[in-house]
Predict the 3D structure of the following.
Amino acid sequence: MSSTTLPVARRPLALLFSIGRLVMPAIVLFWLAMAFFGHWVAPYDPAGIQDADLFEGISRKFWLGTDYFGRDMLSRILAGARYTVGISLMATSLAVTAGVLLGLAASAIGGFFDTAVSRFLDALISIPSKMFGLVLVAAFGASIPVLVLTLAVIYLPGCYRINRSVAVNVAALDFVAVARARGESTFYIMIREILPNMVGPVLADFGLRFIYVVLLLSSLSFLGLGVQPPEADWGSLVRENMPGLPYGAPAVIMPAIAIASLTIAVNLTIDSAFGRHAREGVR
Amino acid sequence: MNATIGRLLLTRLVAAILTLWFVATVVFVITNLLPGDVAQELLGQSATPEAVAGLRKALGLDLPPWQRYLEWLWNMVRGDAGRSLVNGSPVAGLIGSRLGNSLLLAGITALVAVPLALALGITAAVHRGSVYDRIVGAGTVLAVSVPEFLVASAAVLVFAVQLRWVPALSQLGRLDSVLDVIRTFALPVLTLTFVIVAQMARMTRAALVDVLSSSYIEMARLKGAGQARIVVWHALPNAIGPIANAIAFSLSFLLGGVIIVETIFNYPGIAKLMVDGVSTRDLPLVQACAMLFCGAYLLLVTMADVAAILANPRLRHR
Amino acid sequence: MSVNDKDFPGMLGMPEQDRLMRALRSGASRRDLLGMMSALGIGAAMGGTLIGAAGTALAQTPKKGGKIRVAGFGTSTADTLDPAKQSYSTDYCRCTMFYNGLTELDDRLNPKLALAESIENDKATIWTIKVRKGVQFHNGKELTAEDVVFSLKRHHDPAVGTKAKALADQMTEIVATGTHEVKITLKGPNADFPVVLGTYHFLIAPAGTTDFNKGIGTGPYKCKEFTPGVRSIAVRNENYWRQGGGPYLDEIEFFGIPDVGARVNALLAGDVQLIGNVNPTSAKLILSGKGFNIMETKSGNYTDLVMRLDQAPGNNPDFVLGMKMLMNRDLIRRNIFQGYAEVANDQPVPPMNRYYAADIPQRKYDPDQAKFLLNKAGMIGSTLPVVTSPAATGSVEMGLLLQQAAQQVGLKIDLRQVPADGYWSNYWMKVPVGYGNINPRPSADILFSLFYASNASWNESGWKDPKFDQLLLAARAETDEARRKQMYTDMQVMIHQSSGIGIPVFISGLDAHSEKLKGLRPMGTGSLMGYSFAEHVWLDA
């Protein structure tokens, strides 16, 4: 395993990545802060139509240009952080927590419980998500909690399946059998024996699922199930400004960069945290 | 071992039938809960109460829901998926004509994306912590985090509108040579590869890294096995469960989840058929599509589970 | 709009001149051009020189042959070749390829004879129609009165699910009185009946047709292939009954691309030669590319603010008038539609209609007066929910502008964007304040009967006025043009003053095409030459 300990000084790229290790969490923290304070920091009213052309370029007045309606893009992105960061984090955490717990339980308990949960969630995943969203909103009305719940339910089955498949592998290892023989409770086995040994895949899955949620949020908003205008999440900002793409308008590129910066930062932060975790040899 | 898999397949088959029935029933209930029915959606701005009532009667929608449900179920048991409420043609025909297209697109994408993802995931795991690993990690995340419609539209703008290398639309019926096939499928396959490669590559890497740091791999290493041999013979089999599941997921997405690609490239696939069905409340069509996607999904995950069991001896005796 | 209006910097600058020159090059008629110029404020003298310069373009004669591919908007399994069931522009485009009507509408929405040889009436109630002789369907069968009776009577069968029930219900008796003569008796007099017969749903198919997917009609093209939700291929009907014009092309492949960006890209990449329904932002892009052109069709299509008069707060006339004054029509026209719209005056008859009442004073954006009225209605300081949806074109953006304007006068608007899916059955006309979108209708009578008569099913704001209903019936029976025009003017004034709908602009239809495709010109009946482009276009290879 020589490749893990690169001589930092001789490799400029490696140096860059070492800095990246610090920068990535900083980006995550920055966007988290914007989720809370974005509305206040925004230089203009995010909904206000400015005295500007549509799809204006970057200027001193409008740092990130204007959108398809003549609104300030920087303000809209800062204000949108609340939805993209907030809702997505909540929904992903909900889906992953539920998915991990069910997956652990299924692998530790096995038998009929495993079969029943697995088959039920298989059925759930087969119901078209658009339909699911429409019916939930028809029943409960469009609101942020309903939105978070919809997103979580849509991604729960996938999350469960991945986590179960990892957990089953771990559960088949000798030390779990030893723990069982010791007479440990199922809950103890789940949390103390299996979970610590599947942190890597679970977090890798969390990072990806976060991206999916960020993107699905914009589809649901587009259908009218999500964030209400004039507010918009980042995916919706990209979508509503798509006509600006042929002009290379910042209005379509900037929110896409915002999404990419957030999702890459989240994933790489997870990767490097887990990387350290793995090196410390937790068992 | 064969007995384990045989038992698994048998229980899965029984479970699949139950799952399919459950899905169709839920779809039936949901569609009935959604506002508006097929008569209203069909008549649109002409939906006067009398016109709606007349059309409902003509389509048999004036019967109570449970009666319609039982009738549908009985027909389904006999292998008849019914007729579309919207245009009166048999659902089986509507789906049949497009299923081939969807399978073709999914197949070509899988041929490109799965080997690519496995190669990226395995090499990243072997060189974990290296610059290469970081680049693969950031690159796959970047690919999946750009909205699909942006990737597709940007690709069309560059390769179809500016360079004119490929057509903007992926229409079938002009596939006379290999070059035609490449030109037709290049952009949709590119877009879909962007979407699915990350999940498979990252899961492959994560699963392998876990296994590579375990004691028995150390053992193999101490015995003097080469790096390639360790990865392929010792590590991969134990990691195949999550990897196969990730692949199964990604492939099942290729059938029903490609609505944006089908829309932007005007590709006559099955995802669009289902979305049409939902918005016109064409119940028999939606039920059949949902069951089809469900069936494909169950098939794929069962294959993944079988692969996991075959690869990991410890699981054979559970 | 006036030339000196400071709100419209450069409206008459290069883009407008460019648009004119493009129209000239693509073979617009002299009348189209003069119309365009007067709309732009260009005098006849200058217009004359412009037209002279492009004389060569006008002199071109249509060529036969060639294949084109056309992308309409919207396509689904509900695509149909059954005239009675048509619901989208895609269907209209296809059906006008394969079928003809008894009459058809010209660019001013006047009825012209088509499959009918003559139409006579007795007190506008009993109509005798002579059917053109020697016309053959695509399957070789000759057109007779029987086919006409079949095609019209189908609309009375509920199982057909016709879109034209409201119009068809006025025909109480439809009988063949000879091999080529049909007598139709109406419930009451209707001087506009020939207009009704010229609408898309009354196209003529052979008697006894059950499978409409073959597209057997008398139209300029024959159906070679049709798959709902995928595409249709039409080939020229060499045996077309109408002489001296189209069809010119060998083959037209027609399909729908629902995504507007994809549609525009397909045109720019050369995959298709003509696309329908372009948005204003893309229009700019298309005009900046070489070899492409935009065709703007002024139309009566409008997205309206609907305030239910039978619910609070719409039951207070001050509120309704105040809201109408909060609509910044110029801003809507410029910002949302980029100039591809005409300012409207809270009544639904568009300027191109011959009954348009031009003398009603234009209602203007007047925040001060609006504030006064809203205050009087007790609305200042309260929160008003307004429902918008992508289903009603531009309503989300109009809602945003309204929200801004309302905020300035102290009314908080809670904008609710709801899914397009189910909008018409679930929200439209049900919420106290929301938006609707009304497609153009071919006559003032049809428009008023469907949307403004007290008992109309789609009386959007629940506006009831017995005087209006009486006038509507009287105008329908009136055959004297001058008196009729006066009645329609009175009705437009009544709607403008007291109905619960605010119509800010009439939205133009925009189509885009390759400059090689000639013969296109705007028609009052709708985009894509009233969806009947197929018969008239030709390729200049």
Summary: Chain B touches chain C through 50 residues (CB under 8 Å). The first helix of chain B runs from residue 2 to 33.
